[in-house]
Specification:
The complex is a heterodimer of chains A (about 260) and B (about 290). The longest helix of chain A is centred in the middle third of the chain and has 33 residues. Chain A has one domain. Helix content of chain A is about 75%, strand content about 0%. Chain A starts with a helix and ends with a helix. Chain A is mainly alpha-helical. Chain B is α/β, with parallel strands linked by helices and about 290 residues long. In chain B, about 35% of the residues lie in helices and about 30% in strands. Chain B is built from ten helices and 14 strands. In chain B, strand 1 and strand 2 form a beta hairpin. In chain B, helix 4 packs antiparallel against helix 5. The radius of gyration of chain B is 22 Å and the shape is globular. Chain B starts with a strand and ends with a helix. The mean pLDDT of chain B is about 90. At the A-B interface, helix 1 and helix 7 of A face helix 2 and helix 3 of B.
Chain lengths: ~260, ~290
């Protein structure tokens, strides 16, 4: 537990700031919904009929004029970007920072196996992602109640679950990378997240490259699909979980044998 | 059972040399110096011993246990001081010390307090605010506070002022007297010759020699400097001759009394006979190695 707690302590400020910022932004988006919807009226149709633009952000499938539709899109913009970016930069540095800061020689010469260190660090990343997601979810629900909306809670929960899984997948892939790296890897992790994000947008616009949805975790966070079907898109999701598993396996196999510089 | 034993231990970093065929044997209770110039392979050897890097070939045992199979067990009875001590961002000294003891599942508070006092280290300060020497002290306390059986110290005194160096060695000698084994690397021959019982010299990845410190120091070679010498007599067994202005200096490997007899016939203004410095000791063993 020592490494796990130490890791959380080291990162507490970062988790708090990211959670607060994302929760605040999503909260504000929800708070302005009543005003938006009263002014929108016909705009709703317009949003849904802007051709490729609507497709790109999945707005063709949802009713922007309804709270759930509006929430799905806003959630995708705020939590859908902020969450995985936080997950990526946290996970990519969690192993590599020990070598970067020369603390590896301190940590790894204590009587604790590398496997144990990897496990505790992995759980610290998961915990941080849980904290972020729960904070954002709590603030969103409170905001929804404050504005007098009664969303479909089940579907709302599914949307949050999808973004939580997205965060985990990105984190686990970056965790695998972290085992190789000796420096921060900030740019790499950000690049991966962005690549996934744009892959999804491209796949939304062009049917020929729809297969990209299997690769990008954003394939299963499509709120339009979730609201319509009341379920996650499993055909995309299981591929993502395979990527996540590969990331974790890589981390263990590489880091337990790594030569520490 | 030896405290440290390596058998033809070899480590290559890709194609570049780390250490080659190192056979090292350190008895329990020894105070052992590991000497060599920078890049000779001292740190590589130590890092293999601690399981930070895995050997390319060969075997190493610490306290009778295999370093690869029983790494965690071994680390529990070892105190390690890295040559460059890294620390976590905003931690205070006492937090770092308590992290180390928690990772060892030991309560070392009492010992940590004593060590901090003896080394004049303020445990309340943030490590980021400390000078290089004081950061080194944090590393020292981390390596010493759990009273391990074996101390592996990589360049322990670099950055410490002479007073602290003395206190540090006093503590090590006390621990050694209580039965612990000390293994330290250094490129400062004087501190090794003062405190260590046995030593090994490593150069370019290979162990050149290991012996008692007194045997190593008496290489049988002296550095002779003669100033204002006229009609320099012929002397056997000399090498590394350097001439500067009116001074000629050379390494002499023969009997000193014979040298004095030969020099009696020469005329010179001044003479200096000294033990060779570390580089020259290396040179001595290096030449011996090559001529084998």
């Amino acid at each position: 537990m020592t490494v796990f707690l130490h890791e959380l302590k080291q990162n507490r400020l970062s988790v708090m700031i990211w959670s607060a910022v994302i929760a605040f932004m999503l909260g504000v988006s929800i708070m302005i919904y009543p005003e938006m919807s009263s002014q929108m009226g016909d705009f709703s149709d317009m949003f849904a009929n802007m051709g490729a633009f609507s497709d790109a952000f999945g707005m063709d499938q949802i009713n922007f004029g309804e709270f759930m539709g509006y929430f799905g899109v806003e959630c995708g913009n705020v939590l859908g970007l902020g969450g995985p970016i936080f997950a990526a930069i946290t996970a990519v540095s969690v192993l590599s920072k020990e070598e970067k800061n020369k603390t590896a020689e301190f940590l790894l010469t204590h009587p604790i196996s590398r496997g144990r260190i990897i496990t505790e660090k992995l759980f610290s990343v998961i915990t941080q992602i849980i904290v972020l997601n729960i904070s954002v979810m709590a603030v969103s629900c409170i905001a929804a109640i404050v504005i007098g909306e009664s969303p479909e809670w089940g579907k709302l929960a599914l949307i949050f679950l999808a973004y939580f899984l997205l965060d985990l997948e990105v984190a686990f892939i970056c965790f695998g990378l972290s085992a190789f790296l000796r420096r921060g890897g900030f740019a790499v992790s950000l690049g991966i997240t962005m690549a996934f994000y744009f892959m999804n947008i491209l796949a939304n616009i062009t049917d020929e490259i729809k297969f990209l949805k299997y690769i990008t975790p954003y394939g299963y966070t499509d709120s339009g699909y979730i609201i319509k079907n009341g379920a996650l898109d499993f055909k995309y999701m299981w591929v993502g979980m395979l990527f996540a598993a590969a990331g974790i396996i890589t981390a263990y196999t590489v880091y337990t044998k790594k030569d520490i510089k | 059972m030896k405290a440290i034993k390596t058998t033809v231990l070899t480590k290559y970093y890709g194609a570049s040399r780390g250490i080659i065929d190192v056979d090292l044997a350190v008895e329990k209770g020894d105070f052992y110096g590991f000497i060599g110039p920078n890049g000779a392979g001292k740190s590589t050897t130590i890092r293999v011993l601690l399981g930070l890097i895995s050997p390319t070939s060969g075997k190493a045992e610490i306290l009778g246990k295999d370093i690869q199979k029983n790494k965690t067990e071994i680390l529990a009875s070892v105190g390690y001081l890295p040559s460059e001590f890294g620390f976590y961002g905003n931690m205070r000294v006492k937090e770092m010390l308590s992290l180390s003891s928690k990772l060892r599942k030991q309560n070392c508070e009492k010992e940590a307090k004593i060590l901090c006092e003896r080394l004049d280290l303020d445990a309340e300060k943030r490590i980021s605010q400390l000078s290089l020497g004081n950061r080194k002290k944090v590393g020292i306390v981390c390596a010493l506070q759990h009273k391990p059986e074996l101390y592996i110290l990589d360049e322990p005194t670099s950055g410490l002022d002479p007073l602290m160096q003395r206190e540090f060695y006093t503590i090590l000698q006390e621990r050694n007297a209580e039965g612990a084994t000390v293994f330290l690397s250094s490129h400062v021959l004087s501190e090794v010759s003062r405190y260590c019982k046995n030593a090994a010299i490593i150069r370019e990845g290979r162990l050149l020699v290991s012996d008692t410190v007194s045997n190593l120091g008496h290489t049988g070679v002296k550095r002779i400097s003669l100033r204002g010498v006229k009609n320099m007599p012929e002397i056997k067994d000399i090498r590394d001759i350097k001439t500067q202005n009116d001074t000629i200096s050379f390494l002499y490997g023969g009997r000193t009394d014979e040298l004095v007899k030969i020099l009696a016939s020469a005329s010179f203004e001044d003479i200096n006979i000294t033990d060779p410095d570390l580089d020259e000791v290396f040179m001595h063993y290096y030449v011996k190695e090559e001529s084998k």
